From TrEMBL:
<dbReference type="GO" id="GO:0005524">
    <property type="term" value="F:ATP binding"/>
</dbReference>
<keyword id="KW-1003">Cell membrane</keyword>
<dbReference type="Pfam" id="PF00005">
    <property type="entry name" value="ABC_tran"/>
</dbReference>
<keyword id="KW-0547">Nucleotide-binding</keyword>
<keyword id="KW-0472">Membrane</keyword>
<keyword id="KW-0067">ATP-binding</keyword>
<dbReference type="InterPro" id="IPR027417">
    <property type="entry name" value="P-loop_NTPase"/>
</dbReference>
<dbReference type="InterPro" id="IPR050388">
    <property type="entry name" value="ABC_Ni/Peptide_Import"/>
</dbReference>
<comment type="similarity">
    <text>Belongs to the ABC transporter superfamily.</text>
</comment>
<feature type="domain" description="ABC transporter">
    <location>
        <begin position="23"/>
        <end position="274"/>
    </location>
</feature>
<keyword id="KW-0813">Transport</keyword>
<dbReference type="InterPro" id="IPR003439">
    <property type="entry name" value="ABC_transporter-like_ATP-bd"/>
</dbReference>
<protein>
    <submittedName>
        <fullName>ABC transporter ATP-binding protein</fullName>
    </submittedName>
</protein>
<dbReference type="InterPro" id="IPR013563">
    <property type="entry name" value="Oligopep_ABC_C"/>
</dbReference>
<dbReference type="InterPro" id="IPR003593">
    <property type="entry name" value="AAA+_ATPase"/>
</dbReference>
<dbReference type="Pfam" id="PF08352">
    <property type="entry name" value="oligo_HPY"/>
</dbReference>
Amino acid sequence: MTAQPAAGTGALLDRPRERDPLLAVTGLTTSFPDGDGGRVQALDDVSFTVQAGRTVGIVGESGSGKSVLLRSILGLIDPPGVVERGDVVFEGVSLTQSSEAALRRIRGRDISTVFQNPAGALNPVVKVGDQFVEAVRLHERVSRPAAYERALALVTDVGFDDAAALMATRPYELSSGVVQRILIAMALVHGPKLILADEPTTNLDVTVEAQILDAIARIQVEYSTTVIIVSHDMGVVSQVSDEIVVMYAGRIVEHGETADVLTRPAHPYTRALIESVPTGRITAGTRLPTIPGTPPDLSRLGPGCAFAERCAYATDRCVTQTPPLVPGTHTLRACHNPLEAVAP
Ligand SMILES: Nc1ncnc2c1ncn2[C@@H]1O[C@H](COP(=O)(O)OP(=O)(O)O)[C@@H](O)[C@H]1O
Ligand code: SF4
Ligand SMILES: [Mg+2]
């Protein structure tokens, strides 16, 4: 089972404004020292909202600021990194203004995370069932049998047929794909309202990737959990997301309903990302399409559009004025010469 993208007709742009989002990120700007006395702007004026029950995919090449965005939302930017400006409001509460203790509570119960490289997340020699029961009892006073029953149900819900047998195994006996699905089940133990998944399928083969995306789609259906899934791969986010946010050099360059972003992207970078998704069967020796050029050095970003050097549509204005993220015909996009205005 894989969630189908919602039919897009610019629906994101028509969204009623009065509905309070579960998460609202406004003007978030995060920097790190560049080692040369200056600062690297890893996240630059990022704003978006997430409505409850939706799955939002965040996509962009490596280094575009996706992980920094998730860490900034969670209040996990360690010095000398700094969230310089902006606000993150979750269920009406500002996380950027919250105390560390309050943030820890929210991270423990309301917002769960799933990361790349699941290997280190579980103790390799302690039975899965015992670790799961501990995870349940970390924040709740429930008996061990009750915690075990909950764990069994969650493991079944992410697509394992024989949950009891899996509980009796030790992580070192399992593949990293199976461990990742167990971690997705564990992320659900306290009934979080929001799950942040950072590259949950990266470095796993396509069959395992499909199982993990299936687990994420099941969560969406069974628990109505809101999900933000981050990947460098447009193919991954497009399979499970209701809407897609495209990042480039620390900024959002396009945001829209999945169907709109995939079928009528307005930003040249979005189109390049879509075209870089391989079609057909990949075998050893298949050359994967890539976007010509490389992402810019964030410590040397000047005015203008960061994509200009790689963009076939760049004009003089593109190198002097930073394009703002504004509504276009179907999506929000930050481009002076959007594709919707260019003859096909
Ligand atoms: N701990 C750090 N120290 C210095 N710079 C960092 C740090 N973390 C991230 N950055 C900067 O932020 C950029 C974006 O990083 P990241 O969010 O990890 O990218 P990705 O989109 O691949 O997840 C990096 O290219 C780097 O310039
Ligand atoms: S603003 Fe200019 S350089 Fe940037 S993506 Fe649009 S056309 Fe290309
Ligand atoms: Mg990352």
